[in-house]
Specification:
By secondary structure, this protein is of the alpha+beta class. It is built from 13 helices and ten strands. The strands form three sheets. It has a five-stranded antiparallel beta sheet, with helices on both faces. Strands 6-8-9 form a three-stranded antiparallel beta sheet, covered by helices on one side. It is globular and about 65 Å long.
Length: 371
């Protein structure tokens, strides 16, 4: 039986599942401590760092001192929203079905299981805190941004209009009922945001007007084949930002480790580029490098053998501008479901909203919408 949450993990259960997975290599865990981590916005989940004490010397057996347990959040609204979008199942199946076939680096998987009937989901994965993390508020620098763009291009090239791209039934596809639900959720959440004084105080001048235009055309953005043509599809992380990346600078081949994979979708790959640049790069730096990064993305896809269909820079730039608007869905999702009780969480949200709307306003993105 999968424990209800990370607090319910017992020593007996932990030994049982890690022994069956081969993780323990014949030894046992004598005891462990359970420390809550990763409290944040949206669908982040219920996460804990487990510090393990083994019966034998862990170093001689090459066993980690800590691992991370990730379960769905306790908050009923966040849990139900995740169930609606199959987020918990998607993350587990990304680890087990997508990552092994991809050029992508994710935390090592030690255990995963889900029980849809009883709505139970659990992951035990590598603790990546030994690697470099970037504060989302501080944002990525130029070199980190380049590495992240290369990493997402390398991952997406494998799936670019590939024959098996649509084989993952659990992953939302373009023009689907899940996309229709997302449109309805965005419109409802946008109305809640635009009438919220805290939200209005956080966004740049012109944001509410731009958001109203985007709301009016959001069905077109998310569902039309003119906005999302039936080509140049890949798998998108769909929450590709600094907080979901670790950097291992000693690994020259794959320095970027991606986490929080429960929102992966099939769509135009440039969604991830737009979300990264529009959310995780300081505004002044983004203004200087965003066109360079879009070109780097295209070049890297070509280097990795992706069969780009008429995706020259000008066309890619149009999709980029539409993507910074599409990604507004995640911003309002985070604002409505996030915990804004602390000063840091408020600053986190304000920085994210300012960056996202600045990317929309700086590039006159709404002009790429039909009149």
């Amino acid at each position: 039986m999968i424990p209800k949450d990370t607090e319910s993990i017992s020593l007996e259960w932990l030994n049982d599942v890690l022994d069956k997975s081969g993780f323990l290599k014949g030894t046992r865990i004598e005891s462990f401590t359970n420390e809550r981590i990763g409290i944040g916005f949206g669908l982040v989940g219920n996460m804990a760092k487990l510090t393990l004490k083994y019966k034998e010397d862990r170093t001689t057996m090459n066993l980690p001192e800590t691992i991370v347990a990730k379960w769905p959040p306790a908050d009923e609204n966040a849990f139900n929203l995740g169930m609606q979008f199959r987020a918990w199942e998607r993350e587990i199946r990304f680890y087990t079905e997508v990552a092994p076939k991809s050029r992508v680096r994710v935390p090592k998987l030690y255990y995963s299981d889900y029980d849809l009937e009883n709505k139970r989901f659990g992951l035990l994965i590598e603790d990546c805190s030994k690697y470099t993390a970037v504060d989302q508020i501080e944002g990525l620098n130029y070199e980190q941004t380049k590495m992240a763009i290369i990493a997402i291009a390398d991952f997406q090239a494998r799936w670019w209009d590939n024959d098996d791209l649509f084989s993952f039934e659990f992953m939302p596809k373009p023009y689907s009922s899940v996309s229709e639900t997302a449109v309805a959720v965005f419109k409802m959440y946008w109305d809640m945001c635009r009438n919220n004084e805290d939200f209005k105080s956080m966004v740049p001048e012109g944001s509410i007007e731009a958001g109203d235009i985007i709301k009016e055309k959001f069905s077109w953005l998310y569902l039309s084949k003119e906005s999302i043509p039936e080509e140049n599809f890949s798998i998108c992380h769909f929450d590709y930002r600094a907080d979901n990346l670790f950097f291992d600078f000693e690994n020259k081949e794959q320095p970027v480790i991606m986490i929080d994979l429960g929102q992966a979708v099939v769509s135009g790959g440039i969604l991830d580029v737009a979300y990264l640049l529009g959310g995780s790069v300081p505004i002044d730096l983004r203004r200087k490098i965003e066109k360079e990064m879009v070109q780097l993305y295209i070049d890297r896809l070509l280097e990795q053998g992706a069969n780009l269909k008429n995706l020259l820079f000008d066309r890619a730039w149009t999709f980029y501008c539409r993507s910074v608007m599409s990604n507004l869905f995640l911003a309002v999702l985070a604002f409505i479901n996030g915990d804004l009780s602390s000063e840091r969480s408020k600053k986190f949200m304000k920085v994210g909203l300012q960056r996202g709307f600045a990317a929309i306003l700086d590039n006159d993105a709404t002009k790429t919408l039909p009149s």
